[in-house]
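Figure 2 data, in text form.
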Amino acid sequence: MAAPSLPLAPAPGRMNVDFEERVDFARLRGYRLDRAKKAMEQAGLGALLVFDNNNIRYLTAVAIGEWTRDKLCRYALYTRTGELVLWDFGSAAVHHRLYCPWLKPENCIAAYSTMRGASPPASGLTAKQVAEIKDRLKSAGVENEPVGIDWAETPTFFELMKQGIDIRDGQQVMLDAREIKSRDEVTLLATAAAMVDGTYQDIAAALKPGVRENEIVALANKRLYEMGSDDVESINAVSGERCNPHPHNFSDRMIRPGEQAFFDIMHSYNGYRTCYYRCFAVGRATQPQRDAYKKAREWIDVAIDAIKPGVSTDQVARLWRCMSGRSSPGWSRSTRRWRSRRAWSSPWRRTARPRTAARRRGSRKRSWSARTAWKS
């Protein structure tokens, strides 16, 4: 008997249990390394050397504090022959040997780093760093092959070239690897978004005249960390006259009656990130706000219906130009699709969307725009 299919984007409980299969982290790690290896081979590389925290986590399934993001003090090497080496903060490297059995203990090493210049060039740390990387390339049998690198300190780039390593663009290779998500990755993304759904419920309840933008940001941070977020990267909170042009920050501004308030929550759950934003009306939505929402909703519905394999973003943008009356109907003379301003049947309308109490009938605070965009 055939089993019913699971939803495309499930968001199960955040704990592992014995009575349901949820995220299989061993399967997740294997999938990501396989994707990276295939992308590496397609690019003609012998190895990938990554300093970006997101790429390090993708390859090694290891993360430490957010404070390391701009220090360039951690790096990982993944070779075409399957060797995976992680250089990390000294005590963290020892921790990984204890708690990360998927990494070889001898491949969890204390890193050499100037901490972006905190140690002067005379310390010789960069030369030692590259010499150790070169030795690992030789041990893996790929010392004469190109190495893709995502980003690093400028002295590291110079030293890699000085020591005869052929460096290539590894950033795009990693992006190619990370482009297609597995079932486990989609589940983590959906769970991260569900956590933001719950946070917006709390924001809707707290949003009233007199509350300040920074107080909403504090509330959201608290709620997300309580639910298991591993990094609240940023929360934009913008209200009233600060809404346009969008400043991409928050302030201590006090929200007033009748204003609109915009929020964008960027956080990570097991390394999978959201950029999930919403607008709210404080009190009741005004007619101009309703008109703007209606127009934005129509444009979003048209775009969602148009998205198919092979469609590019410029073609979608042309649809919006046409709907605004700034150009003739259609995408382009070459595509010969969508030729009239007809009513569009939207998949968005047919699927459940995250809702807060503010959007239910009878509420005094009505959310008048919603859009979710996920990223890892």
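Caption note: Residues 183-206 form the longest helix (24 residues).
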